[in-house]
Amino acid sequence: MSLPTSISPTLALFGATGGCCRAVLHRSLQAGLSVNVLARTPSKLTTEFPSTEYPQLTIIGGNIRDAKAVERTLTFTEGTSTKLVEIIVSGVGMRSFGESERTVCEDGMNCILSSITETRAEGAEGDDPKIVVISTKGCSTERREVPVLMIPVYAVFVRIPIIDKRKMETAVRKSGLKWCILRPSHLTDGESKGLAKVRIGVEKSQKGGKSETQSEEIGYSIRREDVGLWIYQELVCGGGTEEWEGKIVGLTY
Ligand SMILES: NC(=O)c1ccc[n+]([C@@H]2O[C@H](COP(=O)([O-])OP(=O)(O)OC[C@H]3O[C@@H](n4cnc5c(N)ncnc54)[C@H](OP(=O)(O)O)[C@@H]3O)[C@@H](O)[C@H]2O)c1
Predict the structure, then answer these.
(1) Label partner for 64 (CA 20 to 30 A): which of 104, 112, 134, 246?
(2) What are phi and psi for residue 59, nearest 5 degrees?
(3) Per the database record, which ranges form the NAD(P)-binding domain (predicted)?
(4) pLDDT for 172-189, tens place per residue?
């Protein structure tokens, strides 16, 4: 697999009003990266990230099902040309159990993928972007990814998001792009504990939708700040490392 992106990659973020991607946004802006963010309610971000302080941040108001808004989020203007971003990170997820929310990850990913094709057709330049998505523990159909005590909790409360996230994962795996799927444990708030506290399980994707477990770490929770820190450090900073491409990475304490 080829090395990705530049040392200062351009970024498109979806779901940055949620804790994990907000942490990615914060760290990326501190590092001076150029970031496009799609947000249904931009005011949720403008107080913390004012344009006076972060001129390299562009917030596009819109829904992840709105192709035009997604296309704007995926592109930058450089001189007279339009360029695709180098890295896409999505932490979009259900906010309620409403009917349309149940397919937000699948619909959102399909919209991102078709928007990449559309922007290319309209002449956007640059390499294909790398896609990073936040899925969840419990998506594996082959292994138990959660502590035994948590199995009933996942079966009842995470059943519907898991159906949606599995479909999103399939779309990402079939995209033909470089990708990394993250499956964190139950997410909690609070300050970062640091990457030394984060345990990592790795599944490598194989042909036919199967995967091979390389290492497994089962735990109860992880803080959103540390998911964001891990994404920034391993997949964004300096373009990210090749090590995680084509892999499903479980994150837990
Ligand atoms: N809760 C857990 O314990 C748990 C465990 C593992 C994985 N996860 C997953 O991890 C990811 C990150 O979680 P998080 O807690 O950081 O974020 P979150 O609180 O789940 O926030 C979800 C994000 O998605 C956005 N969103 C939802 N529907 C959208 C739409 N139609 N168009 C555009 N944006 C939309 C929300 O925007 P608005 O602000 O506009 O609503 C928000 O930014 C999510 O996918 C979540 O499902 C959660």
Answers:
(1) 246
(2) -105, 125
(3) 15-233
(4) 999 999 999 999 999 999
Tokens 């990394």 label which residue? Answer: 180
DSSP states of 53-118: T-TTEEEEE--TT-HHHHHHHTEEEETTEEEE-SEEEE----SS--GGGGGHHHHHHHHHHHHHHH
The preferred substitution site among 22, 92, 104, 160 for testing ligand 1, maximizing ligand atoms within 8 Å of CB, is: 92
Give residue 210 CA to ligand 1 midpoint distance, Å. 27
Query: Given this model, what pLDDT does residue 4 score?
Result: 47
Alpha helices by DSSP H, listed for 16-58, are: 19-30, 43-46
Atom of ligand 1 nearest to the CA of 101: 28
Please tell me the residue having the least CA distance from ligand 1 atom 48.
187
Instruction: Return the pLDDT at 5.
Output: 56
- Give me the domains of the chain, ranges plus CATH numbers: 11-252 (3.40.50.720)
